[in-house]
Structure formats: C-alpha cells, structure tokens
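FORM 7B: Structural annotation worksheet

SECTION A. Query
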Amino acid sequence: MFHNLRSDISRKQYLKFTEIDDNTIAWVNSMDLKGAILNDRIVTEKAKAFALNLEITEFKGSKGWLVKFKKRNGLKLRNMHGESATPNLVSDFIELIKNKISLYGAQNVYNADETGLFYKMIPSKSVCKTIKSGYKVLKDRVSVMLCTNVDGTDKRTPLLIGLFKNPRFFKNFDIKKYVIYSNSKRAWMDSRIFNQFLLKWEMELRKQDRKIFLVVDQSLKTN
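SECTION B. Predicted structure
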C-alpha cells in the first residue's frame, strides 16, 4: 500500500490555512458591522498579515485562495446601496457600552482602533478638462492606532507602526513628541506591539489607582 505524501502535505497546509481563514472572516465580519468598505486587496493583505503573525510561510494570498475564501464564506464584491436597517447586534452593543459608561464613568471607557494610512497616495479623481495620465499610484503605508475615552478628555498618544526600526526621515525629527513609534515586517499591528502598548498603559493606570474599560476591534485581539 502506497502512502500519499503529497496528500498529507496538502492536508497539513489546509489545516494551517483554516486558521488564517478563521481570523480573516472574523475580521471581515467585524469590519462589515462597522460599515467599512473592503476590496479584494485589503482582504488579501489582512490575510497575509494573519499568516505572518501565525508564522505560516507557505501562505501566499493568491487570487485562487481569495476566490475560494469568498465562496466558502458567502462573500462577494457588491455595489454599495443606500441606507439599511441597523442590525440588532449593533443595538445590543450600544446598550452594553451605555451600561459600562454608567459603571465606569465616561472618562474611564475607552475605544482603540487601527487604520492604514497611505501617506503618499494622491487622490484618484481631479477636477480637470482632460484626462490626466502618468501618475504612479504610490502604496507606501503605515498603520495608526488611535485611542480615546468617551468624553474626549483623554486622547492617548497615537501609535504609529512603520516598516523600519529607525526610518531615515526621523533622523532630524523628534517623533516621540507626537506619536509612539513601533515597527513590524508589514507595518501592521501585531500582538507584540499591542501588548507593549497595553503594558505601558497598565503601569500608568496602576500609579493612578484607576480601572478602565477598553473596547478594541476584533483584529487587534486576533493579530
């Protein structure tokens, strides 16, 4: 009886990729609830980031994977339409936050969320008489995490995540005056950076003998 080694390898890869799928669909669902607009590239890049954090080097985020991922999860690239009814889940979440505010106080309930910043990208449209061409789309990006409390009295220093540990353009600029800077391989938030952020904040809160309630996006918890 012959042992199918290729089948075993494929099965192991499938099990690994399942973990990527689970994280990615959880993130897509959380973004969908927020009303975020996602395209194929954003979903693929997020899946690659999950693979990187899970140390799954075989994952390439190919078009074939994306097609199958969307089919498995009932996802399609759809046209955006007008207003829709608010899901019950959102209403329940709002009630939860109201309860936490009454328990902790508005100054002690925080929300943190991450976004990508394509800092070199120019607008895709322009007011002009003729079609302009020759503009290269620059996709250089960093990630930014913003955090504040409900009443807006404590806007935490933004967390900026780039590719390089010591970017050249910081050489004559004191970036620490404006942001907390960190870096990762894809300029994405990861568990190491997020845990460092939380640990430093926790030390500050302990000195103040203070407890808070922090609401974070699903992607921050699973990265």
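SECTION C. Observations
The beta strands are 109-117, 142-149, 159-162, 180-183, 213-216. The radius of gyration is 21 Å.

SECTION D. Sign-off
Analyst initials: ____
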